[in-house]
Every structure is written in structure tokens, then in C-alpha cells.
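DM from R.C. (forwarded with permission)

"hey, sorry to bug you on a friday — could you get me a structure for this? deadline for the figure draft is monday and I only need the backbone to look sensible"
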Amino acid sequence: MSSTPELSSLLFATLPPLPSASPGDQNITSCQEWEQTHQLLFHLGNLSLLLGLIIPTTLALHMILLRLLLMTGCGLFIAWAALYRCNLDVMVWNVVFLLVNFMHLFFLLYKRRPIKIDRELRSVYKRMFEPLHVKEALFQRLTGQFCTIQTLKKGQAYAAEDKTSVDERLSILLKGKMKVSYRGHFLHNIYTNSFIDSPEFRSTEMHRGEKFQVTIMAEENCKFLCWSRERLTYFLESDTFLNEVFRYLIGKDITNKLYSLNDPTLSDKAVKKMDRQPSLCSQLSMMQMRNSMASTSDTDDVLNQILRGGSAGSSLQKSPGTKTSAKMKPIAEGMEDDVFEEAAPASSGNMASTSSEEV
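My reply, with the result:
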């Protein structure tokens, strides 16, 4: 117990004395005397950092401007530390900051580099994908990995009726013109910058293993962009935005084909005008529309009427003796009129009976 006071006295003896609060030492802690302001380079460096931090994010190049101003501020701090302060640590830290910002700036400029699209694909991008805000880099990814450019000479078939499978590919016509026919009867044309087999692609999304129900023939020397259907589907599943773009484009293309099916005399200029209109039936199966005429027993008569200039729907309505399909039953136009016509005499009879009873 006697050793405890001796140990405590020894510890107090070894501790350094506390600084006394003398009037001469107050300048160390209370900063009564301020140093002079730094040189102009120091203030310019801080101003550059301030301008970089207050750039609004609504500007398209705000990240690039931010990195440039941060690099400018770091450069000014390096010059200030080397010329006026002679502080190695300040200079080294700002050199590190300068290198980091330079790497970020280089990456941002690399991302904004101009993408060179193939000359054969430029018209497809300008016509179909650029209006939907698809960036050039994304379009290059879409067309640069798993698609090919193929050619067909005049008279060659892209698809044969009841022979060619619809599960293999999806194509866009780049050059030339194709003709779609059913059992030798002309249905409609396919022009440049439009899908060749969009109806089959949409109608067989859930049912695989089907064959083309129409024949697609090249009327001129054609060139088309062809995707592998399986790889394209897998790629679109990984990119939601591009998947919606394809759904819109395919639905719009089906709508244009429906217009040309009802009026086979449409020219290429008329199709281009319809491309500016929104899609009306993006979920409609074009294969059923192409084959709706074939489902009747007198298909040749219907096709002959179409070739004379009338649509399939109007011809069926104008000829009451036409045999309709078992699947698609046309709605009688006079059904609603008959309802109102029958109701009128019944109501007049009721009014006559009530008036006689009152009398």
C-alpha cells in the first residue's frame, strides 16, 4: 500500500509541464495576428474549383466542363505550391488529382466519340431508329455482332410457301423491291427500309416450328439486313429500351402491310407517307390477315375482286352469297338497323293500345 503514493509521484514527475497561458503565447491558439493573403494563383485555383462545382447538370456537357475546370484548378495549385510556397506535399497531392481528372475526361470524350455507321446501314438508322432516339453506339451493337447483309438476285425467293421455316431470321430490306404472293396471287409489295417477315415474326412468338404461308420473291436485285432470330431475341431481352423500339417498329410495319394488303396499288411514296403515321394495330397477327382470304372456299374469287381494286372486307360485305370462314364470321351491317326498325312498330302498337284504353 505504501508503494502506491510513490508510483503516483513518479508519474507526475515524468509528465511534461503544461504550457502556461502567458500573454506571449496567445498568438499560437487564438490567431490574433493573421498572415498575409496568398498569391493570385491560389485564388484563381479556388475560383476554378468553384465554377466547376456550380455548373448546372442540365447542360449536355456538364461532366466534361466539370473535369476541365477541376484540372485547371489543380494545375494552378501546382504552380502556386511550386513557385511561391515551395511545399512538396501540396504539389504532389494536386498532381494526383490532376491525373485522376484527366483519366475521367479521357473516358468521357471516348464515350462521345463519333460512331461511324456502315454506308449501307445509314439509311435504315436515319429512317427507322434515329427518330426513336436510338443512339449510334447502341445501333452499332445491334448490327455489329449477330447480323449479316445478304443479297438476292431478281427472281430468287426469300421464302417459299409451306416450305421455309419462320423461326430462323428477321430481315429488313435495304435495297430493291420484293413481292408477296399466295398461291400465285399477288398480295402486296415490300419496299426498302421495311421489315420483310415482320408478320411471321410477331405471330409466331409463342408458337414455333411453323412455315411461311406466303411466297416472298425478289422483283429486283435486293440486299437485306438479316438477324438470327434466336440471338436477336436473347439480345432484346437484355435491353428493355431496344425491345420496346422493336415492338413499335414491327407493329408499325404490320400496319403498313395491312394498308398495302387492302390496296395493292400503293406506291413507294404512299408507303413512306404512312410511315409517318403511328401504329394502329401493333398486336395484330398479320399472318392471319394474309390468310383470312385463304380460309374461304372460294379464295380465287376473293383474290380476283382484290385485283380489280376492291378490298377483301368490302367485297365480302357486298356479296352476301360468299361463303365465310368457320373461324372468322363477318358481322352483318344491318343487324343494328334491324333492331331499331323492329322496335319502332312495336312501340307504335303499344301507344295505340294505351290510347284506346284511355278512350
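R.C.: lifesaver. The beta strands are 147-152, 157-159, 169-175, 178-182, 185-190, 194-195, 215-218, 222-228.
me: no worries. Residues 20-24, 274-289, 291-300, 309-359 have pLDDT under 50 and may be disordered.
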